[in-house]
Write a structure and sequence with these properties.
It is a single chain. By secondary structure, the protein is of the alpha/beta class. Helix content is 28%, strand content 18%. The protein contains 9 helices and 9 strands. The strands form 2 sheets. It has a 7-stranded mixed beta sheet with strand order 3-2-1-4-7-6-8. Strands 5-9 form a two-stranded antiparallel sheet. Helix 1 crosses helix 8. The protein starts with a strand and ends in a 6-residue tail after the last helix.
Length: 245
Amino acid sequence: MIVVYSATRNLYKYLTAAIGSLRDHNDARVIVLAEDDEIGIDDVEVINVSGQTYYPPNSANYNGLFTWMSMMRLCYVDLIPDADRVIQLDVDTIVCDSLAELWDMDLTGKWFAACHEYQGTYRPFGEHMKYYNVGVMVVNLKQLREDNAVPEMIDYLNNHKLWCTEQDVLNLFAGERGKAVEIPIRFNETKFTGFTENPAVVHYAGYKRWYECSAAMFRWEYLDDAIRRHQLTPSVKKMRGESGG
């Protein structure tokens, strides 16, 4: 199993809980797209993408709500050439169970598998098209390479302003061509996708300061538990009002 995260420098410290929770339940090769060669977490592969050439500064979405770093998640086909598929997880996710079912999904002819945002109101391409949340996504790199799909999507991102950047373009291109498949809600529980009694991945999408772990958040107890079990940096402990020692 190969699991990929991406993080700008201000998010490195929050990966501790995310990756720790993943490893509590899964034996995985962990790759992080980052702005540096090291991020301070042991036993992860770091790919420094700070010198990327896919999205120039005059790209339509280079300095948008989500920066070029999030758009790099569309570049796995080049950045991880030895993999046929990966599981993508956002920084603000906590894994609560095995992801084997996702890893073993039949993705024949499909580009990705993700959870439908049936409770969300964001419909950039109309009500007729399903909109998927790719914060948890199984990516079929083999099929993307065979279809040579990524260059066209990168070109679109560089020339069209989008709010959710690579998530939007994946939805647009895959939706029109029938290249996406849906995963069960329990693998990406958010306030946009829904809740179950047995979450496998809790995703704190929509909470701007999710890392503060407020009890007002849904499923906050999973994040709180992961933070306490996986030792965060002193700066995070200080932010949460705990001892920095």
